[in-house]
Amino acid sequence: MFGTRFELFKLFGIPIRVDLSWFVIVLLITWSLATAAFPLYYKDLQTSTYWALGLAGALGLFVSILLHELSHSVVAKRYGISIKGITLFIFGGVAEMEQEPPSAKAEFLVAIAGPIASVLIATACFATAAVGQTYLGPIPFLGVLWYLAFINTILVLFNMIPAFPLDGGRVLRSILWRLRGDLREATRVTSSIGSFFGLFLIAFSVLNVIGGNFIGGMWYFLIGMFLRSAAQMSYQHVLIRRALEGETVGRFMQTVVVTVPPTLTVQELVEDVIYRHHHKLYPVVADGRLIGCVTTKLVKQVPRHEWTIRMVSQIAQPCSHENTIEPWADAMEALSKMSRTESSRLMVVAEGQLRGVVVLKDLLHFITLKVELEDDSLTPKPTHVPKVVSDEVDKELVHHSS
Questions:
Q1: Chain centroid to CA 245: how far?
Q2: Which end of the chain is more exposed for a tag (fewer CB within 10 A), N or C?
């Protein structure tokens, strides 16, 4: 979903990030407001004033979206849901949640928190603009408040469409979850609605293009594609979580592990280990204890003529939390960590000792078999699962989109 992004700051301990695509939409909104919207309602102002108002409107919109997503996140944290961060991007904002809500009630309150925040923002902007215009007259700055009141109202109406993963779809999912007691079925129904709504927007985009509204049509097309993909991905993710529910890393751990001693030369490491086993990371073990890790990246940093005199102990680094996991850890945690680090293997460590290794393909095979054996006519074919896991599992753990 995201490309290059960077962190701006933290609020309530939640990292706030922006994707590079965010700058594109800020420029487009600023341009639209400065060249069309504000000149229509406020005549004969300087060009610089129009651009200042346009920029203020664009930044105000994204502050509104940030508060919307922050509301989701704060309520989610109250229910013990870990938040990886909030990312602003071309389609608005996403609060990245690392697990599903623990109950239908939690799902409802987390989902509805964002629209409530947007309603409050719209109300505050409308009231301030109305009072200001009554006592101060039609000054240009009030146009920004009128715009924010209008756009937040539109965001609420759009977000409350009952199509997953929009907030309205999450509210509907919470209701179905409560009534039927089945998160998987509730997700299937609401994600199907979301997928259909995405198709509707795509079809609507074609009509816009035919009618001459090319730019608007392209936006409808992109939003439709995004919603359809997110809806399908959300259901697949529930299937994956259900398949791994209650499973620990120890169940999938391979106890026979290729290790290297610290006394090995880099030349021997390359010729006898790396070229034979083709892994990118190897645990360095001495007297049964894990003392570090050596990777192909570290090997590349050693000049070729020093391979015969440099030892593994001289280039190995301490193993990080990102490439190790405990045997009693949740298997879904291992899967998410692999996707986040783009690694296919994690070392299983307990009390400083290497117990084994967990491999991505073993998790994928288990998920595929479990979905196939426990599948019914309503679930997707299990052949979809490995692609979803390997490509997207970390990217869309749980998203709230604006």
A1: 21
A2: N
CA–CA distance, 191 with 281 (Å, rounded to integer): 39
Q: How confident is the model at residue 146 (pLDDT cuts 50, 70, 90)?
A: very high
Report the alpha-carbon distance of residue 136 to residue 16 in Å, rounded: 36
Query: 249-363: which CATH number, 3.10.580.10, 3.30.530.20, 1.10.12.10, 3.40.1490.10?
Result: 3.10.580.10
Residue 69 a catalytic site member: yes
Three-state DSSP state, 254:
strand
Mean pLDDT, rounded, for 289-304: 90
Read off the pLDDT of residues 2-61 as tens digits, 9 standing for 90 and up: 567 778 888 888 888 888 888 888 898 899 888 888 888 888 888 899 999 999 999 999
3-state secondary structure of 163: coil
Q: How far apart are CA 345 and CA 69, in angstroms?
A: 33
Task: Break the chain into its structural domains and give their ranges.
Answer: 5-244, 249-363
- Report how many helices (DSSP H) and strands (DSSP E) the chain contains, helices first: 16, 9
Instruction: Give pTM, 2 decimals.
Output: 0.69
């073993």: which residue's tokens? Answer: 362
d(CA 126, CA 136): 15
What are the CA-CA distances from residue 299 to residues 199, 315, 338 (Å)?
A: 49, 8, 22
pLDDT tens digit sequence for 332-362: 888 878 877 777 888 888 887 888 888 888 8
Angle between helices 360-374 and 385-392 (to 10 degrees): 140
Q: Which H or E run contains 216?
A: helix 214-244
- Fill in the amino acid letter for 16: I
Three-state DSSP state, 7: strand
ω into 165 cis (within 30 of 0): yes
pLDDT at 2: 57
Six token digits for residue 320: 């990080």
Those residues with Cβ within 8 angstroms of residue 51's Cβ, 6 or more apart along the chain or in another chain: 30, 34
The token pair that represents 378 in the structure block: 């309503």
Length of the chain measured in residues: 402
In the set 69, 96, 100, 107, the catalytic residue is 69
Distances in Å between the Cα of 41 and the Cα atoms of 139, 147, 159, 349 are: 11, 11, 28, 65
